[in-house]
Structures are given as structure tokens and as C-alpha cells.
Design a protein that fits this description.
Blueprint: E1 5-13, E2 21-26, E3 47-50, H1 60-64, E4 70-74, E5 86-90, H2 100-104, E6 110-113, E7 115-116, H3 119-127, H4 130-136, E8 139-144, H5 152-164, E9 168-173, H6 179-185, E10 191-195, H7 201-208, H8 213-224, E11 229-235, H9 243-255, E12 262-267, H10 273-278, H11 293-305, E13 311-313
Parallel strand pairs: 2-8, 8-9, 9-10, 10-11, 11-12, 12-13
Antiparallel strand pairs: 1-2, 1-7, 3-6, 4-5
The chain binds iron/sulfur cluster (SF4) (2 copies).
Length: 315
């Protein structure tokens, strides 16, 4: 397995664990959720996003692409092409996501997603925020994509070094990884932010591309091994914002004596839909919507009435 690629390092993050955190987003995930708002996180390879609205057709990207993946297409009617009436066309089968074109584009119309960071460089970068971690009770969150589906020598070493520096390390995981990967980071992890996307196995398969057996087994094992767990529930009208989904989750947690430190109810939002166009992919979330505030309030009440007191809506 190659070295992990990172597609974003988000500073001052307030919704990925306690306090002010720096969140590192690793590229590549075993799931492909139909509502995913970070589609650039799904594939393990580097990719290019194209912002057509910023492009002037200057052609710099096509001249500098080492793979000859960009050609300039005339937008003019047949006949002699008019100056400035060209648009770059990307052949994604040739593109390596190297980012050369993004570096030369004068208008920020091209954005490369996925960069390797040698560990010392990444740690130096994360250390810059130590004062925020210390003052707010925050730290570093490894997220994605799926951080535990990466080269685990790298991830374990990263978690260990951050832990040894005294920083809180949280891991945001979908849980769809060999349990051994979870076990390797357990000694260095403060809190696992653990997603349950859909409790029904067939619906899980339909909406994420994989069934949820491994995810639920891993959650049981992590709980039995004493991991501190924050359950994250993305709630989407048209997918899983139903009382049955919630009562099935409550039964699963109770039946398996899983006592999460906190449960997050995460409201779906469609803010990532434009990224699909930038990646030449189809957005499947057109029929999805955020659940209404009253329903979310009732969802929180349902968990509280079932004995789960630390319920957080949003973030
Ligand atoms: S990312 Fe690299 S390979 Fe892809 S189009 Fe840009 S310059 Fe070419
Ligand atoms: S370099 Fe940027 S502005 Fe120029 S054609 Fe390419 S994408 Fe468009």
C-alpha cells in the first residue's frame, strides 16, 4: 500500500471532538455513501477538481500537464474559433492528480485533492497549533475518507507520536476496516468518533456499497476493549431519518452493552453537491433532505428516554 494521501488539513475545527482541533482528512474510504459531502475523499488516488465558473480558457493548464490529459476545446460555432472561447477538457483516464495544472492556473479554477506528507512534515505542521489544543482541551482528529484504511504503519506512528507529544488524538472512523487496524491505534486514541450510517444491513449496502456486519462487530469489540466511543449518526430525510432506524440503534447499543460517551445527531446538508460536478461525477443526493428541527429534537428525546444522556445535535 502506498503512503496515505491527505486532501485537507482543517484548523480550528470545533465539531470533530472536544475543544479546538486540527483535523487531518485522509483520502480513500471503503464506503461510498450516496449522501457523501466530500466526494473527493472517496477514492484513494489523487484527483483533480475543476471549477468551470472560474476558468477563462487561457490554456495554461493544457500546456503544462505532463500527462497531456488536458486539451482545449473550442466553444465557438463551426468555423474559425474566436479568441477566448475555449474550455479545457480533462481526460481523467490520463490524469494523475499531480497538481501541476492547479499550480499554473492563474484563476484558481483547478484544485488538486490528495498530497503525501512525510510524517515529520505533518507533525511539524500539527505542532504549530499546540497552544489551541492546550487552551481549549482540543487536539488532533484523524478523519477522512477513512484514516484506518490507510497504510497502518504510518497512521499508528502518527497517532503514537502525537500522543507522546501530549496531544489528544481522536479518530473519526466508519469502522469498516479489519479490527487489527483499530487495535493498533487504541493505545494512542482519546476518542473514536464512530459512525453508524444505517443499522439495516440491506439499506446500508444499498446506500454505501458495503454491508454493515464488520462495522457493527468492530463497534462491539472496541467497546469490549474499553475504547472511548462517540457515536455519530448522520440523519438524512429520505434515507434514515426514521424512528425505526433510531430505535434499532438503541436496541443494538443496549443489547451489546455499548455505552457511548456521547451520541451525535448529525443533520444532513447538501453543501458538497457542487463538488460532484467538479469531479465529473453524478450526485445521488437530489432526493435527500435535512430532517426538520422538530424531528431532530424528538430524536434526541428518544435517546434520552432510553438512558443515553449525552446527546449532541450537529457537529
Ligand atoms: S493534475 Fe496533473 S495530470 Fe492531471 S490534468 Fe493536472 S497537470 Fe495533468
Ligand atoms: S489554466 Fe485555469 S483558467 Fe486557464 S484554461 Fe486552465 S483551468 Fe482555465
Amino acid at each position: 500500500m502506498g503512503k496515505p494521501l491527505i486532501f485537507n488539513i482543517q484548523k480550528y475545527s470545533l465539531h470533530d471532538g472536544e475543544g479546538i482541533r486540527t483535523t487531518v482528512f485522509f483520502k480513500g474510504c471503503p464506503l461510498s455513501c450516496s449522501w457523501c459531502h466530500n466526494p473527493e475523499s472517496q477514492r484513494f488516488e489523487a484527483e483533480l477538481l475543476f471549477h468551470a465558473d472560474r476558468c477563462t480558457g487561457c490554456g495554461a493548464c493544457s500546456q503544462d500537464c505532463p500527462q497531456k490529459a488536458v486539451s482545449m476545446e473550442s466553444l465557438s460555432p463551426p468555423g474559425p474559433a474566436l479568441p477566448g472561447k475555449f474550455l479545457p477538457r480533462l481526460d481523467r483516464s490520463l490524469c494523475q492528480g499531480c497538481g501541476t495544472c492547479a499550480a499554473v492556473c492563474p484563476y484558481g479554477a483547478r484544485e488538486a485533492a490528495g498530497k503525501e506528507y512525510p510524517l515529520p512534515e505533518l507533525i511539524r505542521l500539527l505542532e504549530k497549533d499546540w497552544m489551541f489544543y492546550e487552551r481549549s482541551g482540543g487536539g488532533v482528529t484523524l478523519s477522512g475518507g477513512e484514516p484506518l484504511a490507510q497504510d497502518m504503519d504510518y497512521i499508528e506512528e502518527l497517532a503514537r507520536r502525537l500522543h507522546d507529544l501530549g496531544y489528544s488524538v481522536d479518530i473519526d472512523t466508519c469502522g469498516c476496516v479489519p479490527y487489527e487496524h483499530i487495535r493498533r491505534v487504541l493505545p494512542y486514541t482519546d476518542t473514536f468518533l464512530y459512525d453508524i450510517k444505517l443499522i439495516d444491513p440491506l439499506a446500508h449496502l444499498a446506500h454505501t456499497g458495503v454491508d454493515n456486519r464488520l462495522i457493527l462487530e468492530n463497534l462491539k469489540a472496541l467497546s469490549a476493549d474499553g475504547g472511548k466511543i462517540q457515536i455519530r449518526l448522520p440523519l438524512i430525510d429520505g434515507v434514515n431519518a426514521t424512528e425505526k432506524h433510531l430505535t434499532d440503534i438503541i436496541s443494538f447499543l443496549q443489547d451489546n452493552a455499548i455505552n457511548p460517551y456521547r451520541i451525535n445527531l448529525l443533520k444532513y446538508h447538501s453543501t458538497g453537491s457542487g463538488k460532484y460536478t467538479r469531479l465529473d461525477r453524478l450526485y445521488q443526493g437530489a432526493s435527500m433532505a435535512e430532517p426538520d428541527a422538530q424531528w431532530l429534537h424528538q430524536a434526541g428525546q428518544l435517546f434520552r428516554q432510553s438512558g443515553f444522556q449525552n446527546i449532541q445535535t450537529g457537529g
